[in-house]
C-alpha cells in the first residue's frame, strides 16, 4: 500500500532539498518574514521531509541549525531566537510546547482555541502561545522534538501515521545592531508541515478521521483562495476564511517570501491527485513578488494599484446605475408599445367601420383608377411612338385580352358585393342596434368577402363570393322570408348576438 520512496532517496535526498531552502533562510535573517510549506497528497512524505529521523534530520532541524550558524558569523548584529509550535486541528489551535500539551482532549486543554490578534502594524500575534527562548541548537532541537510528540496522528489506508492536522513551527528572529540606539528588527520563519490533501474514499477514513480529513481539505482550499487572490492582485484577500491563513497573514503577503515544497506520489493510481497538487503549486508560483523593486517603486506601485481599485469600484457603481436606468427605460418602452397597439387596434376597427358604411365610394375610386389606366394604355398605343422591340406579339396580345377579361369579371363581382353591402348597411341602420361590438362583428363578416374578392388572383374565388352574395341579396330583397335568413356568419358569437337582435326586431314589428 505504501508508495516506494527509493527513487526519492537516490535522486532527491533531504540534503538536496535543503540546498533549495538555504537561500531563503538568509532572507529571514535579513528581516523578511519567511514561510516554508510542505504541501501534497497524504502519505507522500511531508512529515518525513520536515522532521526526518535522528540519523537523517529533516528540513526543520537543519534550518534551525543553519540559522544558528549564520548568526554566529554576523559580527555587526546580535541575533537571538525564540521558538513556538502549534497545531491546527479541526479548526482549533493547540499549543504544542505548552506544559499541558500532553492532554489529548481539546475540550479539557486550556491551551486550545488560542486567539489570533493583528496589531496596528499588521503583524499577527497568537495570544497565549508558548514562546521559548532557544540559546543554542541543542536546546532548540529538544523543544522541537517535544512539540513533534504532541501532534495528532491516525491510521488510514494510505498512511499508518497520518498527520491529522497542520503543524506550524515558528522561529522568531530578533536582530539588533551593535551601534548605540539601533532598533531591534523582528522577523519570523515559519516551517509548516501541512495536513495531506486526501480523497476520503481512497483513505477509507470514517468517523472522526473523516472529519479531520474534511477539516484539512477545507483549510487547504482556503489557502488556495488566498493564493489565487494574491496572484490576481485582488484588493481583498480572504485571509479570514481559515485559521491557517489568518495566522499566516503577515507571512504570505507581498512583503514576505514563501517557499512551497510539493510532494507527489510516484504511483500511477495517484495521477489525479498529482495533477491537482501540481496545478495548485503552479498557481502559487505565479504570484508576483515585489523582489527587485526599490521602496520608492513599491510605494508608487501600491498607490497605482489603490487608484485603479478605486476607479474599478467607481466604474462598477456607474455600471449598476446604467443597468437600473436601462431596466426603467425598457419598462417604459413596453408600456408605450402596449398603448400603441391598443390605439392602433381602435383606429383599425374605426377604419373597418368606415369602409363598411361607404363601400360604394371606394368602389367608384377603384373603378376610376381602372378606367384611367385603360385610357393610358390606349393613348400609348395610339401615339405610335412605341419602339419596335416593345410592340406586342400575337401571344402577348392574347394574354392581355385574357387579363382584361379577368379584371372586368373582378370589377363585376366587387360591384355586386358592394351593392349587397349597401343593402345591408341600410337595413342595419334601421335596426338601431345598441351593441356596438356586434355591429363591428357584422361588418367584419361582410367586409371579409369584399376584401377576398379584391385581393384574390384566381378567378374561382370571386365566383364563389358572388354566388354567396347573390344568395344574400336574394334574402335581403325577399321581404316575405323571415329576416334571420338575411345574415349569416361563421362566428358563433356573432350568431348569438344576431339572434338577440332578431328577437328585438321581431318584438318591434
Ligand atoms: N524519503 C523517504 N524515505 C524513506 N521513507 C519515507 C520517505 N518519505 C516518506 N517516507 C515514509 O512514508 C511514510 C509516509 O510519510 P509521511 O508520514 O511523511 O507522509 P505525509 O505526507 O506526511 O502524510 P500525511 O499527510 O498523511 O501526514 C512514513 O512512514 C515515512 O517514514
TrEMBL record:
It comes from the Eukaryota. Keywords: ATP-binding, Coiled coil, Motor protein, Nucleotide-binding. InterPro entries: Kinesin-like_fam (IPR027640), Kinesin_motor_dom (IPR001752), Kinesin_motor_dom_sf (IPR036961), P-loop_NTPase (IPR027417). SMART domains: KISc (SM00129). Residues 461-471 have a biased composition (Basic and acidic residues). Signal peptide: none annotated. Residues 1-287 form the Kinesin motor domain. Residues 283-339 form a coiled coil. SUPFAM superfamilies: P-loop containing nucleoside triphosphate hydrolases. Residues 452-509 are annotated as: Disordered. ATP binds at residues 40-47. Residues 497-509 have a biased composition (Basic residues). Belongs to the TRAFAC class myosin-kinesin ATPase superfamily. Kinesin family. PANTHER family: KINESIN-LIKE PROTEIN KIN-14U, KINESIN-LIKE PROTEIN KLP-3. This is Kinesin-like protein KIFC3 isoform X3. It comes from Camelina sativa. The lineage of its organism: Eukaryota, Viridiplantae, Streptophyta, Embryophyta, Tracheophyta. The gene is LOC104771254.
Amino acid at each position: 500500500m505504501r508508495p516506494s520512496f527509493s527513487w526519492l532517496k537516490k535522486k532527491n535526498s533531504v540534503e538536496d532539498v535543503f540546498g533549495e531552502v538555504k537561500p531563503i533562510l538568509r532572507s529571514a535573517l535579513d528581516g523578511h518574514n519567511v514561510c516554508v510549506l510542505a504541501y501534497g497528497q497524504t502519505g507522500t512524505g511531508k512529515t518525513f521531509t520536515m522532521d526526518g529521523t535522528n540519523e537523517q534530520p529533516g528540513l526543520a532541524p537543519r534550518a534551525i541549525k543553519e540559522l544558528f550558524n549564520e548568526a554566529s558569523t554576523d559580527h555587526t548584529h546580535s541575533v537571538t531566537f525564540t521558538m513556538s509550535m502549534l497545531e491546527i486541528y479541526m479548526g482549533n489551535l493547540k499549543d504544542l510546547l505548552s506544559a499541558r500539551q500532553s492532554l489529548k482532549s481539546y475540550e479539557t486543554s486550556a491551551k486550545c482555541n488560542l486567539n489570533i490578534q493583528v496589531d496596528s502594524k499588521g503583524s499577527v500575534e497568537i495570544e497565549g502561545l508558548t514562546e521559548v527562548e532557544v540559546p543554542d541548537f541543542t536546546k532548540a532541537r529538544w523543544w522541537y522534538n517535544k512539540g513533534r510528540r504532541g501532534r495528532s496522528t491516525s491510521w488510514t489506508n494510505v498512511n499508518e501515521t497520518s498527520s491529522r492536522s497542520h503543524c506550524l513551527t515558528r522561529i522568531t528572529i530578533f536582530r539588533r545592531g551593535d551601534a548605540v540606539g539601533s532598533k531591534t528588527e523582528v522577523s519570523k520563519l515559519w516551517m509548516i508541515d501541512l495536513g495531506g490533501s486526501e480523497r476520503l474514499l481512497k483513505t477509507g477514513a470514517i468517523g472522526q478521521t473523516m472529519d479531520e480529513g474534511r477539516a484539512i481539505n477545507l483549510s487547504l482550499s482556503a489557502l488556495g483562495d488566498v493564493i489565487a487572490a494574491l496572484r490576481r492582485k485582488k484588493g481583498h484577500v480572504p485571509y479570514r476564511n481559515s485559521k491557517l491563513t489568518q495566522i499566516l497573514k503577515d507571512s504570505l503577503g507581498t512583503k514576505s517570501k514563501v517557499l512551497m515544497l510539493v510532494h507527489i506520489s510516484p504511483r500511477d493510481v495517484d495521477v489525479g491527485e498529482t495533477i491537482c497538487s501540481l496545478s495548485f503549486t503552479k498557481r502559487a508560483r505565479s504570484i508576483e513578488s515585489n523582489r527587485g523593486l526599490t521602496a520608492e517603486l513599491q510605494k508608487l506601485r501600491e498607490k497605482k494599484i489603490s487608484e485603479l481599485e478605486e476607479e474599478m469600484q467607481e466604474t462598477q457603481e456607474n455600471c449598476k446605475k446604467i443597468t437600473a436606468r436601462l431596466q426603467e427605460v425598457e419598462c417604459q418602452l413596453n408600456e408605450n408599445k402596449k398603448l400603441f397597439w391598443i390605439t392602433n387596434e381602435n383606429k383599425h376597427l374605426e377604419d373597418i367601420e368606415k369602409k363598411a358604411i361607404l363601400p360604394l365610394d371606394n368602389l367608384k375610386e377603384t373603378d376610376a383608377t381602372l378606367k384611367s389606366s385603360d385610357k393610358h394604355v390606349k393613348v400609348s398605343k395610339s401615339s405610335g411612338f412605341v419602339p419596335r422591340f416593345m410592340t406586342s406579339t400575337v401571344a402577348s396580345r392574347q394574354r392581355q385580352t385574357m387579363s382584361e377579361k379577368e379584371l372586368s369579371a373582378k370589377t363585376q363581382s366587387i360591384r355586386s358585393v358592394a351593392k349587397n353591402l349597401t343593402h345591408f348597411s341600410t337595413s342595419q341602420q334601421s335596426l338601431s342596434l345598441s351593441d356596438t361590438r356586434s355591429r363591428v362583428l357584422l361588418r367584419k363578416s361582410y367586409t371579409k368577402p369584399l376584401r377576398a374578392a379584391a385581393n384574390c388572383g384566381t378567378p374561382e374565388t370571386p365566383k364563389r363570393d358572388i354566388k354567396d352574395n347573390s344568395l344574400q341579396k336574394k334574402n335581403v330583397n325577399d321581404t316575405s322570408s323571415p329576416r334571420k335568413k338575411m345574415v349569416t356568419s361563421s362566428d358563433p358569437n356573432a350568431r348569438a348576438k344576431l339572434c338577440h337582435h332578431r328577437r328585438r326586431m321581431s318584438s318591434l314589428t
